[in-house]
Amino acid sequence: MSTTDITAFAFFILIIAITLAITYWAAKRNTDTSHHYVAGGEITSWQNGLAISGDYLSAASFLGIAGAIALEGFSGFYLSIGFLVAFLVVLLLVAEPLRNLGKYTVGDVLTARFNARGVRSASALNTLAISMFYMIAQLIGAGALISLLLPISFNLAVIIVGVLMTVYVVAGGMVATTWIQITKAVLLILGSIGLSIAVLAQFGFNPVALFAAVESEVGREAIVPAPPGGLVPGLDTISLNIALVLGTAGLPHILIRFLTVPDAKAARRSIIVATWVIGGFYLLTPILGYGATLLVGRDTIAQQDPGGNLAAPLLAEALGGPIFLAFISAVAFATIVAVVAGLVIAASSAFAHDFYTNVIRHGEASEQEQFKAARYTSAGIAITAIILALLLQGANVAFLVALAFAVAASANVPVILLLIFWKGFNTAGAIAGMLTGLISSVGLVVLSPTILGDAAIFPLTSPAIVSVPLGFLACYLGTKLGGKSAEREMREGRQTSYDEIYVRANTGISNIEQEIRESAPETGQRTS
C-alpha cells in the first residue's frame, strides 16, 4: 500500500469516526417517532439550510459538474444553473405550504386536504420509487468512485457505504442525518474554497486570467459553447432543465427537510440559507473545472475516469500532493454517505408512516409500534438498496438520476401545486396525476436512447418536457371525469375545505374555528 493510500485511509477513518460519534450523540435523542422522522421539529433555520445544502450537493454536484466543465467546457456549467434556479421554485411555491400542511411525509401534506387512503398510497409509491432510483444511483456511483480512490473492490465499497447509512438512520434517525449533513456541507464548502484558492493562486487570484488561459490553451469553444446542434438536442436541453428545476421541488428527501423546523418562518429562512450556500458553491465549480483542465489535463482526467468524476481529486493531488488528495477524497466519501442516509429516511418514512401506520393499521398503531416500524423499515430499505446496487453494478447512473428527477417533477409537483392553488381539485385527479406522472416518466425513459440506443422510440434522454405536462393534464382530466366534484367530496367529509387548506398553507393555522374560539375571550376583555 502506497503512502497516498495510507493517507487516504487515515482521512476516511477520521470521517467515519466523526459521523459515528454524531450518531452516538443523536441516538440518545432519537427516542420517539417525531424525532426519528423529522428531528422533533427542533432544527433551526440555519442548521436546516446547511442540511438542505448537504442533501442537495451530492457527489454529482461536487465531482460530476467539476468534471463536466473540465472535459466539456462552459456547457457543463448549465447543469449548475438548473440546480440553483430550482431553489427559487422551492422558496416561492413549496417551502412554506409544505411546512404548514405536513407532519412527517409528503403523503401527510396531500392527505391534509384529501381524506383518502388511495392518495396516501400513491404518494408513498412515488416517494419509494424516487428515493430508490436516487439511492441505487448514489450507491453504484459510490462503489465506482471509492474503488478508484482506494484499493478496495466495488462490492466492498458499496457494502461499507450501505452499512454506514443503515447505522446512521436506524440509530440516530433524522437527528443524526441532519448533523451529518451539516458536517459534510461544512467540509465540502471548506474543501471547495481551499481548492479554488489554490487554483486562483496560479493565476494571480484573477478568475479572468484563468478563463483567458483556458481560451488560449483549449479554444474559445471551452468558454463560449456552441448552441445545441438541431431540434432534438435543443429540446433535450430544455427537457433536462425542466426536470432539474421542477424535480428539486418534488424530491422527497428535500421536501421533508421543511418538516424538521418549528414553523414556516424557519422554513423560508432555511431555504434562503441553502440558496446562498448552494449558489456560492456552484460559482466555484468553473474555477475547479477549468483549473483541472489546465493543471491536470483533459487526457489525464478522461484516462482515469471517462465521465470526468475524478477531476476535482486529481486537481487536489496536482496542487497539494497526497494529503490534499486524501482530504478531498474523504470529503467526497462523506458527501455520498450523507446523501444516501437522507434518502433512506425519506423512503422508510413513506413505507412505515404512510403504508404501515395509516393504510394497513388505519392510523391506530401505538407510538411504540410506529417507532419500531420506522427503524425496521429503515434497515429493510437500506438492505434492499445495497442488494440492488450490487446486482445493478453496470447500470447507467445518469439514467437512474435522470429518472429520479423526472419522476419527482412529473408525479409530485403537479399534485402539490394544484393542491394549494386549485379549489376544484379532487381525489380522483390527485391519484390520476401521481400515477400518470410516475408511469409516463419511467416509460419514456425506458423507450429513450438511454436504454434502447439507436433503436429508441422516444428521441429525448430526459422525458420531463412531455411527462410533466402529462402529470398536469391527468390531474385536470381525473378531476373532471373521475366522478365526485370537490364540493361533493367536502360535503361527504372526503376532502377538507379548500378555504381552510388555503389559509392553513399560508399561515400555519391548523384549526381556524378553534383559533377563533381561543382568541375570542381575550378580544372581549380587551374590548370591554
Task: Give the secondary structure arrangement, pairings included.
Layout: H1 3-27, H2 33-38, H3 45-56, H4 59-72, H5 78-101, H6 106-111, H7 117-149, H8 154-201, H9 207-217, H10 231-248, H11 252-255, H12 264-295, H13 298-304, H14 311-360, H15 367-391, H16 397-421, H17 427-446, H18 449-452, H19 464-481, H20 486-491, H21 498-507, H22 512-527
Task: Walk me through the structure.
- By secondary structure, the protein is mostly helical.
- The chain has a single domain (17-509), classed as Up-down Bundle (Sodium/glucose cotransporter), CATH 1.20.1730.10.
- The protein is built from 22 helices and no strands.
- The protein has helices at residues 3-27, 33-38, 45-56, 59-72, 78-101, 106-111, 117-149, 154-201, 207-217, 231-248, 252-255, 264-295, 298-304, 311-360, 367-391, 397-421, 427-446, 449-452, 464-481, 486-491, 498-507, 512-527.
- The protein is globular and about 70 Å long.
- It starts with a helix and ends with a helix.
